[in-house]
Amino acid sequence: MNSDKKVESITVLEAANFLLKNDNFYILTHVNPDGDAMGSGFGLCRALRAVGKKANVLCSDPFPKRYSYLYNGYEPQKFVPQTIVSVDLADTNLFGKALSVYADFVDLAIDHHISNTGYAAKTLLNGKAAAACEVLFEVFTEGKFPIDLQTAECLYTGISTDTGCFRFENTTPRCHEIVAKLMGYGIPYAKINRELFEIKSRARLTVEQHVINSMEMYLDDKCAVIAVTSDMIAETGLAPEEFEGLASIPMQVEGVEVGVTIKEKEPGKFKVSMRSAESVNVSELCAKLGGGGHIRAAGCTVEGNLSQVKLKILSVIAPALGFDLWLS
Questions:
Q1: pLDDT in tens, 123-139
Q2: CATH 3.40.50.12710 describes domain 202-320
């Protein structure tokens, strides 16, 4: 483990060689793990174990049940960690409480977020990649790591979820080329996509009904805002892992250029997700509120009551849409 603050950007080949030369890996990923976090975490773990390395996946939050097919058969190994690698993790504030002890000791970060803060001793960053799993595929190919069916499922899941089932602007020709190769391993891609993008619990559908009915439109209907409160969560019994994908709802409204999803984390603190069409860089907007992410998908945490949080959010969105002031 390396606590040296000097940051080094490395190539795919250098990252592959680093993984092959080291051992006893702790693989860290972000809180509220999504498909790319889970896919890259367990994909890397499986690849390392396949070449005789010891490796475990760590997250401050429980592994979501909807991704249980990625970690079926996974058992943590007992060893003293020597190498700390993070995947799909742009900033140490996303480590969560349990992993915060490793914030100054990350040896290698493998990421695709342009907002990566350079917290690791070495960083493999490809901001043009659709997902961290896409970056990992390149590493596995360059390092000749074996890829089996379950590893291919891990990588496919990360790419599919981060591209919105290949609908988002970050879907590139290279992305499709990689997915075609992963499909060659016989992954049940149709089943995976149906379970991730179509099947929903009754609680999830109830929440969607609530947020759609209470959606608010601002800035000449160019900005749509939905909010999920603690009361709503308690009433429906929605599981934390089922929030994934809610942020796409505001962008489904015709004419909307910026969609905002506000979720109450605790009294006085809200998680904000922003999505945009072609004209607005929401990563820059979220950065003004202490967050970051991608050009078309980003997030931040904002404090205050719900009305105050909306005001703070709209105050940074309005100029991006050509407004000096926002009006309801």
A1: 999 999 999 999 999 99
A2: no
